[in-house]
Automatic annotation (TrEMBL), chain A:
Full protein name: Amino acid ABC transporter
Keywords: Amino-acid transport, Cell membrane, Membrane, Transmembrane, Transmembrane helix, Transport
Membrane topology annotation: Multi-pass membrane protein
Originating organism: Pseudodonghicola xiamenensis
UniProt entry tagged with the keyword Isomerase: no
TrEMBL record, chain B:
Keyword DNA damage included in the entry's annotation: no
Naturally occurring in which organism (per UniProt): Pseudodonghicola xiamenensis
Protein name (Swiss-Prot/TrEMBL): ATP-binding protein
Family of the protein in this entry: Belongs to the ABC transporter superfamily.
PANTHER family: AMINO ACID IMPORT ATP-BINDING PROTEIN, PHOSPHONATES IMPORT ATP-BINDING PROTEIN PHNC
Sample GO molecular function, one term: ATP hydrolysis activity
Domain ABC transporter: 7-249
Keywords (A to Z) from UniProt: ATP-binding, Nucleotide-binding, Transport
């Protein structure tokens, strides 16, 4: 028999645990945007070593599963004498992993701009900085929004992986809850509802942004 | 009357890898004169035009705007500083086949942007000037529209306004009407004729032979990277001596007759 009480009661600890899910994916994407921008700049730079570095960064981080990256960081940090809370390590790892995807999203958006856009700016004598801030970036950011929201939704789901380093986010909390109630179905269903609610909100925000920024 | 530039093109060569795109081009353009560049596709018209404001780098020879070399410090020497190049480009307007308006800005912002970011004007003053430029091309009532809400002809007129708002002394046009539906060509040509009548130096790559015949002071015919002839419009368009020009015009007339 499906226990509606257990299902309903599960929401309290799981919603409380959701703060870590939101924190890890939220901070992860914010930090990921910053690092992603730097990696993207390196990838587009005229300097070959920088481009090489960006290429290596992207291919390593996209080629190794996040779960393995988390475990690597978690066990590597103490070895090299860095002692940080698991949460910090998790956020940074998630951000670094996201930065690889985000830099590719931005590189794609920038490269998709027709060459005529900057040529028109050059032709009137515009300097490189305003070319970037006024012409290229506003268009590239708008163009990349759907992909960035998509990336954020992926991160919310991927944040379940940080449970391996002991962070009590939704997935880990539901495992614990399932073990104490002996009602895994109800608990995991509640967890699914929470993930779904978060991601539907994000998708909604994404559509709203797209609509607002369309001209 | 506007202050108009002269253009002097001397022995200009341009290579794309091994491909010789411009071969020893020589041409003089006097202040206030209109030069039309015609010729078959791939003959190097756009390449030559784009060398004039150094959007394309030429490999040898010189291009002088008002006697001043563009792109290089000395002929065959090292490249001029990017700051100096930007200064020279401020006085050279360019209009592209695909308009190249900035889609995230309104017509007014498209025109004001250069005045603010390049000329360093305050926004209010820039917008007043931009509005004047848009009035001049007949778009006083469309200033708040984004490019996507304008017809091709209107977009191209915004692009012309964007260029003339910078008060150029030379205007370069690369097939400004080729992307337009036939019924929209006229409104753009009208604006260009008015600009020519004001005494602007203009170099126009075009397939509009009527415009070349009636507005140009000289017509230059290019083929395979060579400047075959530069002469008065009638001598090129009505009584050409060179068989290459004759055959080009024959193809043109055949395509346009029905
Ligand atoms: N970036 C480039 N790299 C290599 N070749 C190029 C490049 N740009 C132009 N070319 C070549 O140079 C030649 C001249 O090109 P250009 O665009 O100047 O011709 P055009 O006379 O303007 O032709 P159209 O009427 O089709 O616009 C062509 O053969 C073209 O293929
Ligand atoms: Mg061309």
């Amino acid at each position: 028999m499906f226990s509606w009480t257990t299902f309903g009661d599960s929401f309290i600890p799981l919603l409380w645990a959701a703060r870590f899910t939101v924190l890890v994916s939220g901070l992860g994407i914010l930090l990921g945007l910053v690092i992603g921008a730097l990696i993207c700049a390196a990838a587009l730079s005229p300097m070959k070593p920088l481009r090489l570095f960006a290429a290596l960064w992207v291919s390593f981080l996209r080629g190794v599963p996040l779960l393995v990256q988390l475990l690597l960081v978690y066990f590597l940090l103490p070895v090299i004498g860095i002692n940080v809370p698991a949460l910090v390590a998790a956020v940074v790892t998630v951000a670094i992993c996201a930065s690889a995807y985000i830099s590719e999203i931005w590189r794609g958006a920038i490269n998709a701009l027709p060459r005529g856009q900057t040529e028109a700016a050059k032709a009137i004598g515009m300097a490189p900085l305003p070319q970037w801030t006024r012409i290229i970036l506003p268009q590239a950011v708008t163009m990349s929004l759907p992909a960035l929201i998509n990336e954020l939704i992926l991160l919310v789901k991927a944040s379940s992986l940080v449970s391996v380093v002991g962070i009590m986010e939704i997935t880990r909390a539901s495992q614990a809850q399932a073990a104490t109630t002996f009602r895994p179905l109800e608990v995991y269903l509640a967890a699914a509802c929470i993930y779904l609610a978060i991601n539907l909100c994000l998708a909604g925000v994404g559509r709203w942004l797209e609509h607002r920024m369309a001209v | 009357m506007v202050r108009a530039s002269s253009v002097e093109i001397r022995k200009v060569n341009k290579f794309y890898g091994p491909f010789h795109a411009l071969k020893d081009i020589d041409m003089s353009i006097e202040p206030g004169k209109v030069t039309c560049l015609i010729g078959p596709s791939g003959s190097g018209k756009s390449t030559l035009l784009r060398c004039v404001n150094f959007l394309e780098e030429y490999n040898s020879g010189e291009i002088l705007i008002d006697g001043e070399l563009i792109g290089y410090e000395t002929a065959g020497g090292k490249k001029m500083s990017s700051r100096r190049l930007r200064e020279m480009r401020r006085t050279i307007g360019m209009v592209f086949q695909q308009f190249n308006l900035w889609p995230h800005m309104t017509a007014l912002q498209n025109v004001a942007e250069g005045l603010i970011r390049v000329r360093g004007m305050a926004r209010a003053e820039a917008e007043t000037r931009a509005a004047d430029a848009l009035e001049k091309v007949g778009l006083g009532d469309r200033m708040g529209n984004h490019p996507s809400r304008l017809s091709g002809g209107q977009q191209q007129r915004v692009a012309i306004a964007r260029a003339i708002a910078m008060e150029p002394r030379l205007m370069l046009f690369d097939e400004p009407t080729s992307a337009l539906d036939p019924e929209l060509v006229g409104e753009v040509l009208t604006v260009m004729k008015a600009l020519a009548a004001e005494g602007m130096t203009m170099v126009v790559v075009t397939h509009e032979m009527g415009f070349a015949a009636h507005v140009a002071d000289q017509v230059a015919f290019m083929e395979q990277g060579e400047l075959v002839a530069v002469d008065a419009p009638a001598n090129i368009l009505h009584h050409p001596e060179d068989p290459r020009i004759q055959s080009f015009l024959r193809t043109y007339h055949e395509r346009n007759s029905f």
